[in-house]
Amino acid sequence: MYPKIDSTMPLTSGNEAEAVENALAKINMKSALQKAIDGNQFRICYQPLFDVSSGNITSLEALIRWHHPILGVIQPNQFIPIAEQTDLVKPIGAWVIRSACLHNMALQKAGRRAMPVAVNLSARQLLDKNLTAIIGSALTNSGLNPAYLILEITETAAIQHLAQAVRTLRHLKKFGVKIALDDFGTGYSSLSYLDQLPIDILKIDRSFIEGMSEENGKMTITSAIVELAHKLGLEVVAEGVETRDQLSCVTGIRCDKIQGFLLGKPVSFYSLQKML
Ligand code: C2E
Ligand code: MG
Ligand code: MG
User: Fold this and answer.
1) Tens of pLDDT along the chain (276 residues)?
2) Which ligand is nearest to the CA of 240?
3) Rounded Cα gap, residues 36 and 69, in angstroms
4) Of 2.40.170.20, 3.20.20.450, 3.40.190.10, 3.40.50.2300, which CATH number belongs to 14-275?
5) Which of 77, 112, 150, 273 is 20 to 30 A removed from 85 (C-alpha atoms)?
6) How far, in Å, CA of 157 to CA of 197, rounded?
7) Closest residue (by CA) to atom 23 of ligand 1?
8) Ligand located closest to 92 CA
9) Which residue ranges have their beta carbon within 6 Å of ligand 1?
10) Whose CA is nearest to atom 10 of ligand 1?
11) How many Cα atoms are found within 13 Å in the side-chain-facing hemisphere of 235?
């Protein structure tokens, strides 16, 4: 005998229903992302980084966008975490690396001043044993000098698997690429890791820059981080500079480079070609 089902009774409890909904959303997202890979729906935007002393654009950061045929442009924070959980971040990330190298080479061939392009790597990519081969072939196929490629890793990704991250990063550095530690201050913020990780650039997270003023403690802490980073031979980038006040603060504490909406928002490759 089957139990009698009351149609007003939920089939699952609140928590279970939520879990089922999340699982379905993940499956839908996974198949949509697979379609996006197959259908070439990703694009790269580039945001310029400016040198504090000269005011010139000195490098670019490649930032992915998903041009969904119905939903329009989807930002990376809305799909990279799911791509990361489902492993699809590997083919997507490999495409970003290949495209950024090809775009950089195309700019140089068109006579633009050569400058590095930075690509974000997720934790899963950092742990992928094919990563060095993927980067090696992107450089070879594009003909890009490795000195013009920067790999950005987050503190959290690097520290979760410290030994392996150090090994992979050392291997990659032998190619001649540079490594940046992204979003510094959002994870463990442990200064001791700065010495252990083979990095060249420290990117101070926007949360430090936000609300910074000459009188507050944020500025004192950030200034100490900049000083320490310089002593370790690292270049320091201030992320997310949006106002003139923030610009004068980060200049005052001797950050080397600035990235933020005040000086330049992410633009399409087409607009970048016109801008440079
Ligand atoms: P991120 O690597 O820290 O990149 C900087 C983010 O801050 C970008 O957001 C950029 O548009 C934003 N930003 C820059 N200046 C300002 C500012 O002045 N104010 C504000 N409010 N925001 C600013 P976006 O493009 O949405 O990317 C978000 C994150 O998604 C990135 O943070 C990165 O962690 C991830 N991401 C982007 N592209 C890729 C990719 O190709 N692969 C992977 N694995 N992650 C990516
Ligand atoms: Mg980044
Ligand atoms: Mg960042």
Assistant:
1) 444 434 444 445 678 778 777 776 777 889 999 999 999 999 999 999 999 999 999 999 999 999 999 989 999 999 999 999 989 999 999 999 999 999 999 999 999 999 999 999 999 999 999 999 999 999 999 999 999 999 999 988 888 889 999 999 999 999 999 999 999 988 777 778 888 899 999 999 999 999 887 777 888 989 999 999 999 999 999 999 999 999 999 999 999 999 999 999 999 999 999 999
2) 1
3) 9
4) 3.20.20.450
5) 150
6) 12
7) 240
8) 1
9) 47, 63-64, 75-77, 80, 89, 93, 96, 120, 122, 152, 182-183, 206, 240-242, 259-261, 266
10) 266
11) 17
DSSP, residue by residue, 210-256: TT--TTSHHHHHHHHHHHHHHHTT-EEEEE---SHHHHHHHHHTT-S
What is the C-alpha separation between 5 and 28, in angstroms, rounded? 29
Q: Which pLDDT score is estimated for 6?
A: 46
Burial of 65-90, coded b for 16+ CB within 10 Å and e otherwise, reads bbeeeeeeebebeebbebbbebebbb
Residue 45 parent element (H or E): strand 42-51
Q: What distance in angstroms lies between residue 9's CA and the mean position of ligand 1's atoms? A: 44
**What is the distance in A from the centroid of ligand 3 to the CA of 148?**
19
Overall residue count recorded for the chain in this entry:
276
Q: Which of 108, 177, 120 is nearest to 152 (CA)?
A: 120
Write out the two tokens for 72.
């329009």
The pLDDT of residue 2: 40
β-bridge partners, 134: none
Cα 205 from Cα 239, distance rounded (Å): 5
Predicted local distance difference test score (pLDDT) of residue 55? 95
Cα separation of 13 and 116, whole Å? Answer: 53
